[in-house]
Design brief:
17 helices; mainly alpha; bZIP; 435 residues; BZIP domain-containing protein
Length: 435
Amino acid sequence: MIHHSHFVATIAFTSSAVSHGRAQEDDTANHKEKNRQAQRKFRLRQKEKMKSSQRQLEELTGQMSRLMQEKAELEKRNRILEQVVKLNTNHEERLHCDAQIMSREQEMLLQELAEFVNLVETRSDLTVQDAKTWTMEQLVDTIFPRYVERVKGLLARIKEGDAAAAKQLDALLSLRHEHEKRRALFSVFYWAVYSWNRELLQSAPPPPSPSTWGHILDALVLTRLQEDSMLSARRHLLTRLQQVATERSQALSIIGLELLQTDKDKWHSCPAVQRLQMNFGEERAAVFTFLFSVCDETLTLQQEAILDAAAYPWCPDVWQICSVLHARRGPGEQDAAPPAGLNVDVPALQSLLPLNTAFRFLTSPLLARGLGLRLKRGILMDPFETVVPATAFPTPSIEVLRKMSLFDVHCGRYREQMFWDWAKEHLPHYVQLPH
């Protein structure tokens, strides 16, 4: 019996030990499973943290990229404004108050024009005295068309590998570029050429189609870097125009009440009207920055000449060309339409609105006899042309301008009053332009 009891006890002990061992194994397995789950959760948390950090890094990188782009755009705008200030600061006041300065600068311009025509016509005998006899009609109908034909001829020779033609074209374009930079001092000249072409537009054939601008774009043979620069300028303009449209709608929302409470002859002094005028100035600055970025900082002088020659007699539509380029880039290039809020439909305010707001001026078809691409750029450079109310300055007709000498046109003698004088009286807050 003792042996039997001992055997039973041994079996019981063994069973107990096995059960205990199994329990330990289960505990170990459970512990390992918990560890695995904990590790999985830890890895998931770490993964989420990494994803979150990655998202934050991408956001910060994006913010940094946008800030750097904004910094670059601001620096570009500062460069542009420095040029505008240099060319336009008090120039009308100075020119028509100081006849000596005006005559001296006019002599220089006419001398340059004579040199330019000598290059166009491959001669050397024309002098400033000859230039003094030239009329506006001669410039528009003879001199500039000959320049376009000369450019076309030189470009054709360059395609054939004529190195001498390349040097001749470079000399011609450099002289014209410097001449037009200085002629910007006489903004009234650009206004006269614009008035001439605006009248011709009434009987002109339809403007070039988008497909035609596409062919002209191909002729420019842009580099990828140039294309990127043009698309960047387009995007920046659309962003600025959205801000302008928002500010304009805010000004228009309160302008009605102010006009009701103010005598009509004092409307121009209403804060909301002045705010609207400043808003027109912001639009002009944004559009001019776009044109400057494309024409002066992206295209070469030769590409600008190709553009003038291919588009003549139309003013090259830089916006349409950039839009064609944008469409070619496809879905990877984010699209955006110009904001509708740029339009101003307030009949009572017509006497206070400019002849053209800047973006409408940029995108409207325009003939360019006499100036080419520089016509729109020259008008937009001036702080007044796309801001000052149109009723302040009647547009001169072709008949008035036709027989005027270039000297008289540069001096604005087709006008009874200069922009600067009118602005000092009616828009004193705006004389501090450009912004």
